[in-house]
Amino acid sequence: MQILISSELAPYRIGSGQYFFLMAIAFQQPITQKALSEKLLIDKTTTAKAIAKLEAEGYVRREADPNDNRYQLLFLTDAGHEVVPEVQEALGRVKNKTRQGITDDEYDLLIGMLKTVLHNLTDKEEA
After folding, report:
1. What gap in Å lies between CA 54 and CA 22, rounded to an integer?
2. pLDDT in tens, 53-97
């Protein structure tokens, strides 16, 4: 699936490891890099690398947080806003391929089960 996503997003110079950062910023901007890492359950180093790549491609910009200068707020640039619908379409094509031969109920069950697995893996055990 990652190979197909990479192929679909290659024209936009967005790797399969960056699109979900782009989409998360698109739907919750402004957001700090720290909050983005926490939201996506991804370590800070990986997030920093992905944001740097999106910034280098001109899709994301940083601004100092007026409430706390220690943090940078992440925003989409005009180019970022323009590419989001293209990325959504590309991801839709990939999703449609993954759903072939699976009913809506089966797909919903699969997604629900995967969410449970993710929750189980990321749930902090109480001491």
Report:
1. 7
2. 999 999 999 998 888 888 889 999 999 999 999 999 999 999 899
Residue 1 in tokens: 């699936």
Instruction: Give Dmax over CA atoms of the chain in angstroms.
Output: 51
**Strand, coil or helix: 15:** coil
For residue 30, is the peptide bond before it cis, meaning its omega torsion is within 30 degrees of 0?
Answer: yes
User: Could you give the CA distance from residue 114 to residue 58 in angstroms, rounded to a whole number?
Assistant: 33
What is the length of the chain?
A: 127
Site of tokens 């698109």 = 26
Tokens representing 65 are 């947080």
Both tokens of residue 102?
């699976």
pTM of full prediction above 0.85:
no
Q: What whole-number distance in Å separates Cα of residue 59 and Cα of residue 75?
A: 9
Structure tokens at 111: 């997604």
Q: Strands, DSSP E only, in 2-127?
A: 31-32, 60-65, 68-76
**64 pairs with which residues across the strands?**
72
Question: How far apart are alpha carbons 105 and 108 in whole angstroms?
Answer: 5
* Position 24, amino acid: A
